Every structure is written in structure tokens, then in C-alpha cells.
Amino acid sequence: MPTLRRAPAALAALAALTLTACSAPANTPESAGTPGNTLTVVAPDNGLVWAIDNGFGGYEQANNLHAGLLRKPYVDSAQGRGVQQQDTYSYQPYLASGYTVSPDGLTYTFTLKEARSAAGNVLSADDVLWSFERKFASPRSVAPGVMDPSITDPARQIRKIDDRTVSFTLPNAGLGATFLALMADLAGHIFDSTLLKAHVTPDDPYAVSWSAENPNHGFGPYEMTSYRPGTSVVLTAREDFVNGPPPTRTINIRFVADAGTRANAVRFGDADLAEGLTPADLGSLASDPGVTVPEVGNPNTFVMMPLVTNKAPFDDVTVRQAMAYAVPYQQIIDNVYRGLAKRENAGFLLSDAPGYTDAGFPEYTSDPAKARELLTQAGFPGGVSFTLAVSAAEPDVLDAAKQIQTAAKAGGFDITIDEMPAAEFATQRSNHTSQAFILRDYAITLTPPYELLVYTAAESTNNFADWEYQPFYDALAAGNALPDALSAEAGLAWNATERIYLEQSPIVFIAQVQPNVAVGSDVRGYAWRSDNWVDYSNMSVGQPTDS
């Protein structure tokens, strides 16, 4: 049986944690520290954003204040040890008690539970309509891009039938699977319109600015009871949550800048969950019997290298293909990610989707000779030079960039690495100003048509490579026209679409990486989610477990 994590060295780790995190929250509930009643989390400060329509950043804490009509159920991971993961292609009622689908597959009608918000207001159809109105009206909202083409016009597509019933009508039946997935993800969160409408102003007609400072406008399992920017957050379980109060009553989150300090906090028992850990720390913790490093069967976080197609040298498809052969894939998996990553093929659609096939994909392997051959074919027998942008906030990605820089010389690429602050990196990735860049990223919604569009939508800031190709869009539209996006027939359509993408190679997909978190061995219910945020309401602290 694993040993308990408490040890004499914990005192030193606690001192280091306290120094880094400044201090514990001033109004920590009296129950904090009671075994089984409090979960202590150490995490990097990613800049909290309390609503999807006010930007997109550190959203994990807000995610635990909100709920949607549906959710993806959790199933046990093959790893055991209390680790779970979402069943990403199943959807169960959450704020809704159920839904029906019209015979033509276009209209989804939801019956609402009598849920209450953190402010005590009862969920109604008006909350659903107003939430989507706000998401599509706020200029900083990511919802319109995320929900296109399933929902593009809420006023036309969403209808109140009565106070407890609301319907959504889709452009075609083939979008149904993606729509359900979106409703189970952050885009489907419902806000308390009664509370928010009381705080609208002419300059803030949807109370977006107000809610950025007052986050308890959701129907989720927790409410925020303390927030010290840059230092800490305390979330407290809602006893009146519609699905019952979560098992862990208090969530103490401390923002700790140093990854090593976060790793030591969970190693020595001063934290139950540590996030944003480096591969080296995860590798070290994996051998500690008092710690669990979660692994899932098919992680959706990719290390990827967009090759920006609006400028040389990557305006040439053959040069892009050459770059795909110049990357040392296995070397990065082994040396940077210590084996906590994998690469099944050159693609990016998750292989466990119903109907999935990778037949006919180009086999991009580490082949410097092939890379040089293609560069010569493209008219660059002497090789090419380019600058690769990377964020200083992602040290593992920087290490991967250095591995590529060294290995790609043999393939004819002379790479200069431009390490830049996170804010500058975010700007260049949206503006497509770099020749190429490397990052970790993921699609939250995992239906094939959504994944295929998330990095390719025309005129989108999320089209990292600034690549628009009509044969690809035509193939995607053909798949969307089918009645079931998860059928074997649709699988062939998605295969044809992805094959076009890989042959054009606007992004080199390097590896899928495991979650960068660790939990104490006495913690149960850590669940990998497609949004890569932790659901605190599923977690509990108990006795160590061997299975």
C-alpha cells in the first residue's frame, strides 16, 4: 500500500510554498484543513477570466462556478488509482432533466431542472436565451467562433417554449453531435440573467464588466468566497446545488509561480493537487508512491508547430512537407516529455472517435534525407532559414523547439528561435506575424468536424497558419451534410478531409502530451476533461489506494 505523503520535510516545503504564494487567504473557512473536507490546489497564475464572453484565459476556477444543460460523464481510467476521464462522445443531463430530438434531427428541446444560481434565482428558459444573446453580443466573446456553424444566430435558432422548456434548431442534422458536445462544454454555460440584468448599464448592456469582478452568476456546484489576485482563491460548495453538494466542501487554490515548488507541495503533502508541472517534475513524481501522475488513453493536448502560409518560406507546400520530415518526433517524446507523450500518426483527429480511420495518411517520420530531397524539389538545394517563435511561459515547448533546431539542420533547415513573453507570443499567434511558432494547444470539443475547423476557419485568429484552402472546406462541408457525424460513413468523410490537411501540412502535429498535473495518492476523482480544466466537484480526499 502506498505510504502517506506527510513527512518531516513537509515543513520545509510548506515554508517555501508560503513564501512563494505570499500567504493563505485571509478568510479561509474554519473547515479548511479538515481531512476529506478541503482540497488544496497549487497552480500557476494564468490570469483569471470569470466568463467566456470576457476573454479566454485562466478559466478553471470559473468553470467550477458554472454549469450547462448537459455534461460528459466520467468513466474510470485504465490507470486506476482513482483517476477518471470523460466519455467524450456521451452526453447526460446536468441543468436539464432531459432532451428530445425532432424526427428530422434539427430541433433539440430541453426540459430544465429547477436549479438555483449562487444568487438564489431559479433557472428559467429566459436565462438560457439571455445567456446566448450575451455570448454572441459581447465583443470579447469566443462563443461565436466556437459554436459556428451549429449556432450562428441565437435569436433565430433558440426559442422559449415555456418557462421550463427551450429549443435549439440547427442548420442541418449532421451538426447534432457537435452541438451536444458544445452544450456540455464551456460554451454551453448558463448565466443568472436576473442577477446580471440588475447590473447592466448603458456602457455595459450585458453586465460583462460587472461579472468580471463578481463571478457568482452561475448555476454550478461552487461559489467564490475569497479572491486575492495573484495569490489565492477560495471556492465553497453550494449546499443548494441542484445535483447535490459536492463531496469536497472547500477548495483552497494558491497561485505559486515556481513549478518545482508546486511539485514539492504535492510530494510532501502540503497540496492535494499540483498543476502546470514540468515533464521533469512529473517524471520524478511518477515514482513516488504517495503521488499519482494521471495518464489517460488518448490525451487531446498537442505540441504543434504552425507554419504560417502567408509568407516565405512556408507559402510553398513542398517546404511545409519538408519541415514535417525534419522534426525529431520520438526524440522530443523521450527527451522532453520523458515518455509522457505519444504520437500515433501524423494527424490530429483523436483516434478513438467512432468511425475514425487514418487510411492513406502521409507518413511523416523523422527523415532528414527526405526533407532535403523535398527542399531541392522546391528550389532550395542549399536549404532554407526561418525564425521559430516560442513562449517563455512554456519551458517544455522551448525545449522541444531546441530539439527541432538541432535536428532540422540535417534536413536543410537553419532555425533561429525567438523566445518571447507570453503576452507577445499570444499576439503574434493571433496576428500570424511569425514565420512559424510552436505551442501546446487543444480542441475542447472533440467531434471530428469541430476539430477539423478549429485551426482552419477562414478569417479566424485561431487559424494559426493563416491557411485557407477551398478543397479542404468542400470536403468538410460534404461531411457536415451527412446525418450522423459519428457514423462509419462520416468517418470516411473526415478521413478525406484530414488527409487534405496533412498533405498541405500547414501545421506539424508533433505529439499528444499527458496532463501536466499530479495528485496525492489519497485523492480520488481527478478526471481528465477535454477542456483540460479540473472539475473539483468530482474530487474527494480519502485514504491511499493501490488501484
Give a description of the structure.
- The protein is of the alpha+beta class and 547 residues long.
- It has three domains: 10-65 and 77-85 and 222-296 and 515-541, D-Maltodextrin-Binding Protein, domain 2 (3-Layer(aba) Sandwich); 92-195, Dipeptide-binding Protein, domain 1; 301-513, Dipeptide-binding Protein, domain 3 (Roll), CATH 3.10.105.10.
- The model is unreliable at 1-35 (pLDDT under 50).
Give the beta-strand count.
Answer: 25
- Architecture (CATH level 2) name of the largest domain: Roll
Considering DSSP H and I runs of 4 or more, what fraction of the residues is helical? 25-40%
Question: CATH homologous superfamily name of the largest domain?
Answer: Dipeptide-binding Protein, Domain 3
Low-confidence stretches: 1-35
CATH topology of the largest domain: Dipeptide-binding Protein, domain 3
Rounded average pLDDT: 90
Beta-strand share of residues = 15-25%
Number of helices: 18
